[in-house]
Amino acid sequence: MTRQADPEQRAVLAAVDAAAAPALALAQWMADHPELSLEERATSERYRAHLAELGFAVEAGVAGMPTAFVARRGGSRAPVCAALLAEMDALPEIGHACGHNLSGPASLLAAQALAAAVPEAALRLLVVGCPAEEIGVGKRRLVEAGVFAEADVAMMAHASDMRRAHRLFLGTRKVEFVFHGRAAHAAAYPERGINALDAVIALFVNVGLLRQQLPRAARIHGIVTEGGVAPNIIPERAAALFWVRALEDAQLEHAYQRVVQCAEGAAASTGTRLELVRVAGESPPMQPNPPLADLYRQQLELLGLSESDHAPDASIGSSDITHVSRVVPTIHPNFPIGTDLQLHTREFADATTRAGGAQGLLEGARALALTVLALARSEAVRAAVAAAHPARRRCC
Hints:
It is built from twelve helices and twelve strands. By secondary structure, it is an alpha/beta fold. The strands form three sheets. Strands 1-2-4-3-5-11 form a six-stranded mixed beta sheet, with helices on both faces. Strands 8-9-7-10 form a four-stranded antiparallel beta sheet, covered by helices on one side. Strands 6-12 form a two-stranded parallel sheet. The two termini are 32 Å apart.
């Protein structure tokens, strides 16, 4: 599998193998003890204790989140500073159905292998404990707090049913449309009422027609969150929550404004008053970094692993890692843990605890560690990665 690996690469891979058992045990423990967003106290404590034992300097409670942390190791004059992102939260009722019990330990395992095999003068490592990915706020707060200001690259690997080095994410806007009308007896005095629920229904009709005119990369989905209290009372208040997503900033803004116009039209046609409430957890589209993704791809080839036949924009959603991609070159590759699996299902959560989950965790750790090693060894690669980022960040 690694016959072409040179001595340094073999040392990193051997270090991954040597520390694999505790990482796999941590993944299983997380599956057995899932913790929700911003409540990942025991998981964060285990992450931090493990890194502290390895000699990392751990700073807890960063960005105003008790479970967030930054663990640092390496000299300040090292040629590259790499941030490995360690997610930790689970989903309500279905546990680790997004596989954070694999991706978090994979980042920790990669960091441990690099710390064991690469001199501190050659590499500065950050392990960033990232809470609340599932509600879309953790990494945004970390970015706003300046956590990634010292990093030259950021990366993590995520469980999936596919293997790909380059993966995109849709940006998302979240808004609740609240329509205010006037209550009346629905049978005796209907002419005195203003039906807020009619506005919600008109909104969904408008959006349904709008979808025909949107580009393929744009997505709109909504639910009714409030629709009245009784059939014999004309609803004086009704509401709908919508998410608007797209792959590019301009597309996202255009689609969002069109949905707002749909709501405004619904209010005008029903005589209701419209209130817009923006919702937390919004994120921009992913800023890709092709050279960094190509570097990860090269490590997959070194490991004898072939990518799946999936485009970067196939089967994608949104993630708060896109905030990180706007300030530092970032990748979010996939490793497979089975076939024909869907994220956020009980079947996916079960798959994380089987043999495929263990194999995927180790694949992610190996590929991440080799990618960071390649960055540490090549000034030309670092320059290419930095040049591909819009901010033209220096990497050395």
